[in-house]
Design goal:
Strand 3 and strand 4 form a beta hairpin. A four-stranded mixed beta sheet has the order 1-2-4-3, sandwiched between helices. It is α+β, with helices and mostly antiparallel strands. The chain has one domain. Helix 3 packs across helix 8.
Length: about 300
Amino acid sequence: MAKRFDFQSYVARRKDPAGKATAHAGFASYAFSGDIRVLRTLQYARPVRLAAEATVRAFNAWSKSDLLGQSVRVSARQYPHLYEIVRRCSETLDIPVPTVYVRQNFASINAGTYGTEQESFILINSLTVDQLSEDELAFVIGHECGHIQNAHVTYGTVLQFLTSFSAIFLRWVVGPARLALYGWSRRAEITCDRAGLLCCGDLDVATRTLVKLAVGSRALTENIDIDAYLEQNQDIREGIGRISEYWKTHPYLPKRVDALRRFAESDVYRATLKKSGGVPLAEVDREVEKIISVL
């Protein structure tokens, strides 16, 4: 029988032993400060708390089995080349090797992390494995490991659940919870893009992978002009239509690429390359907050 999800205990684990939330308690040093700030707020939002408790119960009851029933677990014996990438990513981020599954899905290049902080797993679409190189897979897997390392899994699962057909069972909290979670999720993706960059170790690889996620084609990505693509940021910021991003779980791809480039200039990232100097991360985060803002 699945253990009951205790939301108050979860919140308590996000604090230091004295019970006072600290600047980066439970988060990696590379984490985006906007992610940390909004995640703290979510921990005390009643609609989100109710959604979390109901979602995790429902997820453990049937969604988890449905997802894993169509998947194959990655191990040293099963898809060893993928397992080695997972192992390297976990070593880079200094986390336990996560549980990873591959599911048959040729509709999109994508991956996701599901469950709770105590029991999480990564699910990779088979098309992702077909379309990406090993370095690009390291970015994607590293990104998902970032969700695990920075305590995103419970809230990420809640949001995925509330945006699916399953939300009909939780319609009494869907509206307020979804809007709050969308704002957090866009910031969480910035944190995890940084984790992906740390794992693949190459900004060009990370950028190319993000673009592949946007266009869904290896051939088209090879011929894309990245600088021209980034110029779309200006178009995104113009017109009332930009408000639709409020209802997105991820920032638009040009914003993510721009934000990741800024992180690559930070002192935190340069230190991982054993280089000195770089822009202080707090300064980078202020710029990134402007980049990903909707209005």
